[in-house]
Write a sequence for this structure.
């Protein structure tokens, strides 16, 4: 049986948030990230939305023991969407999915459903480690929904997989948000 893979494009890019073995850089063409709210969560999360003109960099990893239960729990607001040739990687022939909130089941951010700064921190830290500043810039420039309210929860992180950032990493996040006129409150 062929290993089953998933493509991560948010906190899963940050290897400090999981123990998935042998994660590898990959790219999915025809998708982009967006901040969206879901009835299943109180805050906004990243989701992937189709976009023929864009791509998402991230990591692919094997689903341990082909047991989707733990991963599905982690990604409980999302549906698994099969990927085909739009997934580019160096692993060889694989079956893979991307997690995305189903069309019609996610909505634009509101004041009542902010984006957590601790979540942004985790994602940017991952992109910096995996793809350098080029990856960080692409994350900021191609993610939809930066008009969303951002809750500054750094002092007491709400995001369950929050990570400690260096001063340099915090500055990179803050500068990226500033360039987009996105303000954490």
């Amino acid at each position: 049986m062929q290993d089953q893979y998933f493509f991560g494009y948010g906190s899963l890019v940050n290897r400090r948030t999981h123990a998935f073995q042998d994660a590898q850089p990959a790219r999915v063409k025809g998708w982009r990230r967006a901040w969206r709210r879901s009835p299943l969560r109180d805050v906004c999360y990243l989701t992937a939305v189709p976009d023929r003109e864009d791509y998402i960099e991230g990591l692919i990893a094997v689903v341990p023991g082909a047991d989707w239960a733990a991963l599905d729990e982690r990604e409980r607001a999302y549906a698994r969407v099969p990927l085909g040739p739009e997934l580019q990687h160096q692993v060889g022939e694989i079956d893979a999915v991307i997690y995305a909130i189903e069309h019609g089941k996610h909505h634009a951010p509101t004041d009542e459903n902010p984006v957590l700064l601790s979540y942004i921190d985790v994602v940017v830290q991952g992109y910096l480690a995996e793809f350098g500043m080029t990856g960080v810039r692409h994350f900021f420039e191609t993610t939809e929904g930066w008009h969303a309210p951002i809750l500054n929860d750094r002092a007491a992180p709400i995001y369950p997989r929050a990570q400690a950032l260096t001063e340099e990493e915090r500055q990179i996040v803050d500068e990226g948000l500033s360039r987009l006129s996105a303000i954490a409150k």
Q: What stands out?
A: The beta strands are 4-8, 24-36, 45-62, 79-83, 87-88, 95-100, 115-116, 150-151.
